[in-house]
Amino acid sequence: MNLTVTKETLIGEILEADRTTAPYFFEMGMHCLGCPSSTMESLEEACMVHGVPVEELVEKLNGHMSR
């Protein structure tokens, strides 16, 4: 599945498209990726909670997924 990540993309959609993105979430302190609530969060919501700049993570994820 080709996916372009935006700040509105749900965490679950990102993980479904590419499970190898999980370490990026672990880096930001999001360790409960299996929780139903975390997979339904947007990237922007997760970044706000964990104090991570959303645009920086969007760039990292898109770069990773384009390889």
UniProtKB/TrEMBL annotation:
Q: Signal sequence: where? A: none
Residue ranges annotated for the DUF1858 domain, each copy included: 6-58
Domain of life of the source: Bacteria
UniProt-listed Pfam families = DUF1858 (PF08984)
Name the PANTHER family for this protein: BSL7085 PROTEIN, DUF1858 DOMAIN-CONTAINING PROTEIN
Its protein name is: DUF1858 domain-containing protein
List the source organism. Lacrimispora amygdalina
